Amino acid sequence: MSKNFVKATGVGIVLGLSLLPLLALAQVPGPIITSPTQVAVLIGKVLNFIAAIVLTIALIMLLYAAILYLTAGASETILAKAKSVLLYAIIGIVVAVLAYSVMPFIQTVLQGQF
Q1: Which residue of 74, 78, 79, 109 has the lowest C-beta tally within 10 Å?
Q2: pLDDT tens profile 83-114
Q3: Cβ distance 60 to 85 under 8 Å?
Q4: Domain total for the chain?
């Protein structure tokens, strides 16, 4: 067996197992959204999920930038790369914090509670 076949099989098994919960959602008898307030709740959950992923990736990038910066030594190219990764990590953290702070505003607007 070739390495590509083993990789493709492994990816197929992982994707197949990760999609199994979606099959359980197919058993829901009624609609997921029945009122306008549930739209706000759904959007809030999606934003919360996306913000958590962005924040996690930004923190990993922050650690990566720190490791690059500490191991750069006298190399100017690695130092410049570390600074740019640090900048993008900080931007990612700011975006995640803004996503968390926008959620209550969006829920208030969608629920009509001005």
Answers
A1: 74
A2: 999 999 999 999 888 888 887 887 777 777 66
A3: no
A4: 1
In a domain, 61, yes or no: yes
Q: Which of 65, 106, 107 is nearest to 88 (CA)?
A: 65
92 and 36 Cβ atoms separated by less than 8 Å: no
The residue range of the domain holding 83 is 30-111
Token pair listed for 106: 């969006």
Quick one: which of 109, 113, 106, 92 has its CA closest to 43?
A: 106
Report whether 107 contacts 44 (CB < 8 A).
Answer: yes
* The one-letter amino acid at 99: A
Rounded distance between C-alpha atoms, residue 45 and residue 110, angstroms: 14
